[in-house]
User: What shape does this take?
Amino acid sequence: EVQLVESGGGLVQPGGSLRLSCAASGFTFSSYWMSWVRQAPGKGLEWVANIKQDGYEKYYVDSVKGRFTISRDNAKNSVYLQMNSLRAEDTAVYYCARWLQLFHYFDYWGQGTLVTVSS
Amino acid sequence: SYELTQPPSVSVSPGQTASITCSGDKLGDKNACWYQQKPGQSPVLIIYQDNKRPSGIPERFSGSNSGNTATLTISGTQAMDEADYYCQAWDSRTAVFGTGTKVTVL
Assistant: This one.
């Protein structure tokens, strides 16, 4: 059974940093692209970032470029999201998801972790 | 940037058919998919590659994609289908979600 478990969310002040983690199990992690998707309270889904199997190809939504960094550790079956220079508008539930690059869809999602940016 | 537009809400009576549209420039040239999200839960993939259903998704969910519009159809809608639905496509190295549609089963 595929499982994705996020952690690392919490309350952070504007301008601060936070690192999210996602532990994967139930599939060959190193064979799949991975992603982060977020959802602000009461709002729709917004894709944040994708990372290729080897970690060398990454894509980001424009609003986080230069502030967020996606990375992975295939030995630990984990993907991460380093978030710097956080803003109030980054407040959201952050989901880890498995990305099917060939046909462009997310087939499995984690339960999400809440990030709140507030003073 | 690429945009996908959905109606904010759709209402349907139990047992009837609900159709949700997703509009985007030349969307028919891309792979469209759909997610269902119930309150307090994570999204669930219900349609991929325009019209394919993952294992475990009921047959009453179907999809199509042509021209500028992808459509999700729920046949014989049940109370459990009340949820938010999002379309999604990939454009210029960016995953784009639709604006979302709240389906209410009256």
Q: What stands out?
A: Residues 34 and 98 of chain A are 5 Å apart (CA to CA). Chain A touches chain B at residues 35, 37, 44-47, 50, 59, 61-62, 95, 99-100, 103-112 (CB under 8 Å). Chain A has a mean pLDDT of 97. The longest strand of chain A covers residues 92-100.
